[in-house]
Amino acid sequence: MRHLPTLRKAVTTALGAVVAAMLVAGCGTTPADESAAWSPERLAQEARDDIASGQLDRAARLLERLEGRTAGTVMSQQAQLDRAWVMYRLGERAQALSILDRFIRLHPTSAGIDYALYLQGLANFNDNLGLFSRISRQDLAERDQQASRDAYQSFRRLVEQYPTSRYAEDARLRMNYIVNSLAAYELHVARYYFRRGAYLAAANRAQQAVQEFQQSPSTEEALYLMVQSYDRLGLGPLRDDTLRVLKANFPESTLLRDGWRATDKPWWQIW
What we know:
Layout lengths: L3 H25 L11 H14 L2 H14 L4 H16 L3 H14 L6 H15 L3 H5 L10 H16 L6 H28 L3 H14 L6 H15 L2 H14 L4 H5 L13
Helix pairs in contact: 2-3, 3-4, 4-5, 4-6, 5-6, 6-8, 6-9, 8-9, 9-10, 9-11, 10-11, 11-12
């Protein structure tokens, strides 16, 4: 019986040695990352090939490695922009925007700053075209418009600071779309208030649409809604003044003749 502790210690030591051997064997079979020994040029080429073949997850990993390997160089800046695009294409909007925010902050004089601003605007712009809005009854103008406003700011900065950029013309077109979308959103909210009898709130929201987005297609209906709201509130002078503005700017307005009609379904609505 006096020999049992010695035996127990020997068994424990043996088991420990077996476990350690198994761990060492397991580590020895872990495949090495072959890209660890690649040159920056090969990393860049492999990432380009992966992007071309649609292997975006692998491309993102290679570009991240390339960015760290070449920190402080133009190649690193290009890797950041490429990785931002890859994350954008993968639907990782938050990561794409994080990379772009950092790039714009750290490299304000980079030759790629116009592209960074364009991609930043594009990531926010396309956020308004998500799957939910396509398959539901919710129109694009009925959603919260913060992403649109952020996209507009990026596109505006691009157009104002780099008017000759290859991305400037497309940015201008998207800015025009965003303005119309924001105006339609304000009008949507104004209609909501009007239908619930909150006529003062409806008039104020419609007035905001007119003041901020005078050239948008929503201006005509916004003025008409103001006329109707002031009429419900018994504010005759304001109603008459707004009506004169409506007639002067939209003399052929069907709203004056027919009033409101049911809103058309969005182009994607099939039921």
